[in-house]
Write a structure and sequence with these properties.
11 strands; 46% strand; globular
Length: 127
């Protein structure tokens, strides 16, 4: 069973939007910092964005600022990654990650600090 359950990936056209969801499984329980990374085959996993569940801190990859946003639904215990104006360069497998730690902003981009991972969601942007 995946520690984090992801959904929302798919095939979309350039210029459109997509929202990914991430929720801890029952075995994982509550988490305090949630992040998204993405990976293209043959390359290293790349930080996309992260936030503290209590809303006290958010960090986005500089090159994606203005096109992405992260939010949460407390009632559904679900985090979301909203991506707009998608381009083919956004094509990748997107991974949700989480930790029970409240990471400082400067640590959020380091995948080693995350304990729990989702199964990955393929996002393909193509015309």
């Amino acid at each position: 069973q995946a520690e984090l359950v992801e959904s929302g990936g798919g095939f979309v056209q350039p210029g459109t939007s997509l929202r990914l969801s991430c929720a801890p499984s029952g075995q994982t329980g509550s988490v305090n910092t949630v992040a998204w990374f993405r990976q293209v085959p043959g390359t290293e996993r790349e930080f996309v964005g992260a936030f503290r569940w209590n809303g006290s801190g958010t960090r986005y990859r500089d090159s994606l600022k203005g096109r992405i946003s992260i939010s949460r639904d407390r009632a559904k215990n679900t985090a979301y990654l909203q991506m707009n104006s998608l381009t083919p360069d956004d094509t990748a497998v997107y991974f949700c990650a989480a930790t029970k730690s409240n990471l400082i902003i400067s640590s959020m981009a380091n995948p080693q600090y995350y304990t729990y991972w989702g199964q990955g969601s393929q996002v393909t942007v193509s015309s």
